[in-house]
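Internal ticket #5521
Category: modeling
Description: The requester needs a full-assembly model to guide mutagenesis choices. All entity lines are attached below as received. Residue total reported by intake: 297.
Assigned to: D.W.
Attached entities:
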Amino acid sequence: MFEKTHFMKTQDLLHRGMNASVTRRKVLSDNIANVDVPHFKRSELVFESMIQRALESEKIEKEKAVPTKISSDKHFEFFKPLDYTELQPKVNIDYLTTVRADGNNVDIEKEMVDSTQNQMTYMLLVERLNQNNRLMMQMMRSGS
Amino acid sequence: MGMYNSINISSTGLSAQRLRMDVVSNNIANATTTRNANGDGPFRRDRVIMTPMNLRTRWKSPLYPFGLSPGEGKGVKVMKIEKDMTPLRLVYDPTHPDSIQIGPKQGYVEMPNVNIVTEMTDMISASRSYEANVQMINGSKAMINKAMEIGRA
């Protein structure tokens, strides 16, 4: 019903952000649980920078003065915007660094700070989602 | 469910650290035990070997790309509790019933290789790691509670 509206896009982006936040929480929990394991390497989750790139590429496509016309399927596109709906959070392992003598590279302070930040982000996203729902409700009521 | 997984991961950390604490207690309690259960020498200190639950490679190679995509991890587990075979401490006490009777070490008693300082630092490390895992569980709880507010408006 509202698929093409800004409301639904906001809703979808918030949903994706919350999903990534929950997955990041798991990654951070795993890092902290393995803090005393020799030769363990920490992992991290990449998502926000990917989605930012996709949204900026959409903006470039929209602001183009002369749109590219493609008359055949065999033509190459000059510039193809990234589709943010296809992005998945990615878990990367930090293979290359060593912090302690036992080969483990979990820095407990960094992990705790990251997890607090992640928690705050999640709460912010929930607030925004509620606000978005309130706006949509108001819009639906205003017609009657 | 998705969200509760992070609590499960932290709980593996809790049980591993608790086991480590138990082993440290046992080592300290047996710091002067000169006879073990089998009767073949003094007590030797125990050591906890921990490993990640999803094993991943420690090296990076384009020939084996599976080692690079381990997912978000499942937590930590205790692989084994092994005996520390470092040399024992010798104390001269000829009247001790477990003292060595013959040979160049005559009159010495073999004492366990438990070093109280090492055990104490291990204990502090275990209890701090335990606290870190508890903190993670509390944070996850706060996040779940917040998620329940969705739609309440």
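Resolution: model delivered.
Comment from assignee: The first strand of chain A starts at residue 43 and ends at 46.
Ticket closed.
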